[in-house]
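re: that complex we talked abt at group meeting.

here r the seqs, copy pasted straight from the sheet so there may be weird spacing, ignore it
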Amino acid sequence: MEKASQTAIRILEAFLKLADERGIKATTTRAIAEEAGVNEVTIFRIFKDKENLMRQAYEHFSPGKRIVAYQLAIDTSTAAQTRSGLIECMKFLRTIFSEHPQLLLSGVRDYRRFSTLHDEMAFHALAACQLVTQALKQAAPMLRPGIDIESATFSLLGFLYTTVSWQHQGWLQMTNEKWNDRLESAIDILMAP
Amino acid sequence: MEKASQTAIRILEAFLKLADERGIKATTTRAIAEEAGVNEVTIFRIFKDKENLMRQAYEHFSPGKRIVAYQLAIDTSTAAQTRSGLIECMKFLRTIFSEHPQLLLSGVRDYRRFSTLHDEMAFHALAACQLVTQALKQAAPMLRPGIDIESATFSLLGFLYTTVSWQHQGWLQMTNEKWNDRLESAIDILMAP
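got the structure back, here u go
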């Protein structure tokens, strides 16, 4: 898959949808073909096998690369600017996590079963962790003195992963507006008084 | 399974171990029998079928019930007492989450595939959410004025779920001592100045 063709993307999307509903193992190439409205042979022609298809799905949809490409530059000239820089960064992560929550969850769900895909599956987590850590480090002059960056990173990341995945599971109902309020509170508590 | 016999527990433990390694779907009763050192017939005699075996595994090992049974009584007579009450509560959750992280993860991993087990699978999450919310409500007199309880709940819960599951995945190395430090920082930030 050099350039992602329309067909290839349709196949990857069908794969994601079915894998989310029934798990990767039970997602046969035949079912993918049916869902995508293509011939099963087309799948093998483009992706060779299911493992490669999975790898391409991660490559194409996983937030890892986009997280790494995020232009982080928190303006610490005022507390308000710092605060809004942190909020923007978290909202960015939320937006891309929410697009394909199943990719984050399948990192958990199927991690042990696909050892050759460990790097792809762990990438978004490490990238997100690094981005939040960097954001807090940049914001540090305006944060509470002596704040523990690693602790704050896991509180913010945890807030994000838990709310996004619980909403995906149907365990939590939270409007976007309310989520934004909760996020702002989580940031405010880190800011210097 | 009226009373959990030694054999029954051995079977449930074998199930958990294999389900964690290869997923629930691929964990056949034959493999469970082999792992537990029992005859496959014994499994059917005790548990009838795999779905019931899964239900019993949740009943027996899942932290939900123990979370509900936790005697929460945060002593808010001093800030130090309040702080240590919150820390104890979080350490309790961490201890029972760490015992069988695969049960928490399989709630994510296999949720959509086992709709008849939704209540069992979601129970620990709702119970943990409620416990942390209650703990923060009890502690409120010693917390920052105007603190957003729901936001703080998801920060603390998120911290817990993310660190426990990432350690289970091998994405994060953190000693217990360091985890305790990070947790204390996460609590300290909530306390009134």
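couple things i noticed - Chain B touches chain A at residues 20-23, 25-26, 105, 107-113, 122, 125-126, 144, 147-148, 150-152, 154-163, 165-166, 169, 171, 181-183, 185-186, 189-190, 193 (CB under 8 Å). Chain B has two domains: 6-61, 64-188.
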